Amino acid sequence: MINLQTLSLFDDMTPHGYCLLWDPVLIWSHVLADVGIAAAYLSIPAALAIIARRRPDLNPNGILYFFAAFIILCAITHLFGLVTLWVPAYSAEAVSKVMTAIVSVATAVLVWQMLSTILTVPTHAALREANEKLARANAELESRVEARTRQLRCANERLEVVASDAREAERVKTQFLARVSHELRTPLNAVLGFTDLLDLQISGPVNDTQKDYLDSIRTASNQLLQQINDILDLERLIQHGPSFTPEPVAVDRTIADICQMLSTTARDMGIDLLTQVQSASSLCTDERALRMVLTNLMSNAIKYSRRGGTVEVIARAVDDGVEIAIRDQGVGIPADKLADVFEPFFRGHEHDLPSIGGTGLGLTLVKQLVDALGGNIVLDSTLGQGTTVQLTLPEMAPYPQTAA
């Protein structure tokens, strides 16, 4: 038998095999066990290294590398156990054990430090339960979305029915207004025509009292005819939108024409109609719409003015347009009603001044037309002192404007 003691680096020491009396069974039992353990220990770090590279989230603070080093050193100690059966390399074995101890302690400290973090990691059962809850929540959400979609679909269908009914009602209303306007205008025109004939005294003389009656009939008929026209104009504007083409308009001439037209009414009421208009003021707008706006505003100013008062019309050129102010010294409008002046059928003095006629549609029509012309209208009034309407129109109205 070869004397393996000659291979020892240490004197006066014997290999571990002497302690086992070189019993083959014991020797080979240790050999096979140490080889198997070392082989297993050396394969585990390889698996840990693969995990650490592919799943960095499972390697916080490099703990898998600490485990790998610890296991490799354990494998080395087992290999030294195998070697020392024949070679008394106990010092080298001691060094490997010291290194194993250092790495083992460091690994243990790191494990204890990370214990709380590791314990907070959900278990597979907890993750499975969370996934099941999430799946149930998703299913419930999908169910709610489907239910909500069905509700919205039903609501949309109901809205379509309502919209269809509204369109049909609007069509019927338009037909009704057209028919009513025709039926009302025909007798009104007859009334006005016969009133003029009676006033001409073709069928005989008419005394002063009868003339007053004829004037009252004519005035009331004209007011009713104007109210019908206002209703139809507003209905047409709302239903079809504005339909006009801008053209050059001299503001001073337009205001002068309207003042001339209203001069008789103003004179009969004892109202002074004053104008301050820059001759250079001009616009590219729809003259008919502008005349309707100014006529309505100036008529209102005269109608609600006190006898002996003044209605003033001021027009001046501003940046990119014209500013027109119509100021009266009339009864004014209560502050709590100013917000409603442009609403259809609103009349601020319907109860306290019932003698002043009107439909309450004039300012509504004015607002619609001013908006269509691209302008702005502001009304300021003080009860008992008068009203000022500030109208601003652009130099060029939106073009083209066509019926909807």
From TrEMBL:
Molecular function (GO) terms for this protein are: phosphorelay sensor kinase activity
Family matches, as CDD domains: HATPase, HisKA
Q: Does the keyword Transcription apply?
A: no
Q: Mind listing the UniProt keywords for this protein, alphabetically? A: Coiled coil, Kinase, Membrane, Phosphoprotein, Transferase, Transmembrane, Transmembrane helix, Two-component regulatory system
InterPro entries the UniProt entry points to: ETR1_N, HATPase_C_sf, HATPase_dom, His_kinase_dom, HisK_dim/P_dom, HisK_dim/P_sf, Sensor_HK_Regulatory, Sig_transdc_His_kin-like_C
Q: What is its EC number?
A: 2.7.13.3
| Stretches assigned to the Histidine kinase domain | 179-397
> What is the protein's name according to its record?
histidine kinase
